Amino acid sequence: MRDMDRSGGHDCSFRYHLRTRSRGVRIPVYWVVRVLIQPVFHIYFRFGRLGREHIPARGPVILAANHRSFLDPFVIGCLVRRPVYFVAKQELFRYRFVGWLLNSLGAFPVRRGESDEETMATARELLARGEAVVIFPEGKRVRSGALGEPRRGVGRMALESGAPVVPVAVVGSEAARRGWRIRPCRVRLRCGRPLTFPRVSAPSPKLVADVTARIWPCVELQWEWLGGLPPLRTAAVIGGGPMGLALGALLARAGLSVQLGCRTAAQAEALRDAGGEHDSMPASRRAALEGGVTIATVPEIEFAAVDLVVFAVPSRSLPAAVGEVGAQIGQRSAVLVASKGLVAPLGTLPSRYVRDRIRARAIASFAGPAHADEAVATGAAVVLATDDEAFGSQLAGALVRAGLSVERTEDVTGVELAGCAKNAAVLAAAAAGAARGPNAAGAAAAQVFGEVHDHALRTGGRSRTFIGLAGTGDLVGTVLAEGSRNRRAGTLLAQGVPAGQIGPLLGATPEALDIAPLLAEALERAGSPHRATSALAALVEGRVTVEEWLATPDSGLRRAA
């Protein structure tokens, strides 16, 4: 291309730095462009500006802002009645006209992803002569979700220049661009009070980090005031079982302040009391205690004040848990549902049940082969399903920091039905395997799993979900887990133990015993294939013996004549 500067990236950038330091913006170009675009911003973007009085009218100032869109430098520039300077990625300056125009408007190049001393030197010189400089501490555009993590350049710039720092939040600019089209949207900005720091010529890395940690929360404050997605700082986990303890420990490991809500004071006290068994206790409980998880009863938790509420209870207990705390959960809180199964009496999917009763800002479902103690001790690959892209990104980031591998999907229906299919298939496999061996176990599992898969496709689920972590991955993990209650329940069914007696024998009712009848009814109501699932439900409900179940044509396991 003829207009591309081929003189070398470094030489090209250095030339623009020198020009910015010596001459600044091209005043005629700057004001002509601004006169043209500022009215457009007010009309097209329904421009809202708050806190402009906090920006000094003259003298050096650093405008520290979040970064959502390429428009951000220009909308921030409209906050003040003087030129502002900002950094732009070095690649843009390789094209002569683009580089000339950006430099005329106050931009100077930066090498992204590395320390750029030329950029820092240019910013210092601009501030030394009393200019306004925009800096984006995140170092890149964070287009969705909560704000990103700041880099330390803003702290260093504030200390080396001694200039006041005005925190600025921009909300809505990310919605302006779709492909090459700029569309109307509402963009709002809010400025906080300026922060001042003593001038230090050679600040230490620790001092720079401390000053950055002082500046960025002020940007977050403006962001949240405008309604931006808050970071996940606090969580309340409902459920004192292994999964509740594991999720509490993992979220604490990710940096959240976590409360764990138990049903009774006695259960809470028992979990808090390590006694002399600390080294021998389950990994999930030990990690929760060591991670600083606050163990309390559910009524002691103030749910309106937490950012994330986690339901880590069996599906049969979900209605009671939602009924107890649902009205207390605020609209700015998010919810994670870790219940696998269906909710009686209609066989409702857990996340749908929660969504119909709680006005949370977002709801996600947690699935996959994540056995509690192993997930805490060595990690796990899990599935996070939500139709809210921002919340999904935010929560996945926290789980990754905790040591998990996270697969994200929008297929909430598929993920939750895959969990149901897994539990029912394990129950069928264990019962058939105990009675007739592994061939029968595989056939029984395939029949049930296949029917639920067909039902999922009819109701909006995806095959990919069933063949992935949420389906076959979780199925294999459960079959191999020696302590799986669903597998042990199937073995007991094959031995003739009534379903009602299995829960007391195992210490808790396996979810598959609740799921099978609800699943059969749901499939039948939807007109989905259900013969194998209904036959399994008949076994669970005691309407047939295991031999009668295996002999029925509906099970797919009848012996050849």
Task: Please give a structural write-up.
With 561 residues, the chain is α/β, with parallel strands linked by helices. It has three domains: 9-225, 3-Layer(aba) Sandwich (Glycerol-3-phosphate (1)-acyltransferase), CATH 3.40.1130.10; 234-410, Rossmann fold, CATH 3.40.50.720; 421-555, Orthogonal Bundle (N-(1-d-carboxylethyl)-l-norvaline Dehydrogenase, domain 2). Helices cover 47% and strands 14% of the residues. It has 23 helices and 17 strands. The termini are far apart. The model is unreliable at 1-8 (pLDDT under 50).
Task: Describe the structure concisely.
With 561 residues, the chain is α/β, with parallel strands linked by helices. It has 23 helices and 17 strands. The longest helix is centred in the last third of the chain and has 25 residues.
Keywords:
561 residues; alpha/beta; Glycerol-3-phosphate (1)-acyltransferase; Rossmann fold; N-(1-d-carboxylethyl)-l-norvaline Dehydrogenase, domain 2; 3 domains; seven-stranded mixed β-sheet; 23 helices; 17 strands; elongated
User: Going across the major beta sheet, what is the strand order?
Assistant: 12-11-10-13-14-15-16-17
CATH architecture of the largest domain: 3-Layer(aba) Sandwich
Give the full name of the CATH homologous superfamily of the largest domain: Glycerol-3-phosphate (1)-acyltransferase
Counted up, domains total: 3
Bin the helical content: 40-55%
